[in-house]
Design brief:
About 35% of the residues lie in helices and about 30% in strands. The protein is built from 10 helices and 12 strands.
């Protein structure tokens, strides 16, 4: 049985870790290098680093900061934000990223997914999808959730798998930062639609939310930010509770 993964997420803006609610009202959450080191020591399974303003500001991901984080940790490390080409991916992998995450650029130029998968392999390619429910339909949003599209979440995820994505990072914009639980109904439907791993993101507020997303949402991994950054949930304690629920995790 594959173990479920617990993944802290560092949303980076202006070199600092930030966290908001529904993608807005950002507040400072600390130094990314210090937080990354702390999570590695707490036995997090992976770490995600998202330069959330890179696409909006039309610039590249902060590769020097990526290198500093990579040097401070010994767990798998995914980096996203402003990645638009195979060259961008190459730079980040050379600076210590184990995987890269592509979001808006995949929608703007879907062939980028094929190119990255061909050059580096699907195993290092995570495609992030930010989606919101509009008139009963889950619609993909771009540029940190600021630009709505007519693209259907489930159809897009299916296309991404066909193009070579290694896993999907699905963030529910409706649940992000609310601490009311993950979008488990959508996650369960995603798991029935595609065969690659799914990372649940958006809505973690307590240990039961993680239990629910693994059992009901059928997620392969759960990503969270503020509950870890502000000490509301301790990762070793969380894993003990998951283990008690017969959810396989790396202790």
């Amino acid at each position: 049985m594959l173990t479920k993964r617990i993944i802290p997420c560092l949303d980076i803006k202006n070199g600092r870790t930030v966290k908001g609610i529904n993608f807005v009202n950002l507040r400072d959450a600390g130094d990314p290098v210090e937080l990354a080191s702390q999570y590695a020591h707490q036995n997090a399974d992976e770490l995600v680093f998202l330069d959330i303003s890179a696409t909006e500001q039309k610039r590249k991901t902060l590769s020097k900061l990526v290198l500093k984080v990579a040097e401070a940790i010994d767990i798998p490390f995914t980096v996203g934000g402003g990645i638009c080409s195979v060259q961008d991916v190459s730079i980040l992998l050379k600076n210590g990223a184990d995987k890269i995450s592509i979001n808006s650029a995949a929608v703007n130029r879907p062939n980028l997914i094929n190119e990255v998968a061909m050059h580096f392999g699907s195993q290092c390619l995570v495609v992030a999808i930010d989606a919101k429910k509009i008139d009963g339909q889950w619609k993909v949003h771009l540029v940190g959730g600021k630009i709505p599209t007519k693209i259907n979440l489930f159809e897009w995820a299916q296309e991404l798998e066909e193009r070579g994505a290694g896993e999907i990072l699905f963030t529910s914009m409706d649940h992000d930062g609310t601490k009311n639980g993950f979008a488990n109904e959508a996650l369960a439907r995603l798991s029935e639609t595609i065969n690659i791993p799914i990372i649940a993101s958006g809505g973690a507020g307590c240990v039961n939310h993680f239990i629910d997303t693994f059992k009901t949402g059928k997620a392969d991994a759960a990503l969270a930010a503020s509950v870890f950054h502000f000490g509301e949930i301790n990762i070793p304690d969380l894993k003990k509770q998951l283990n008690k629920q017969q959810i396989a995790v790396r202790i």
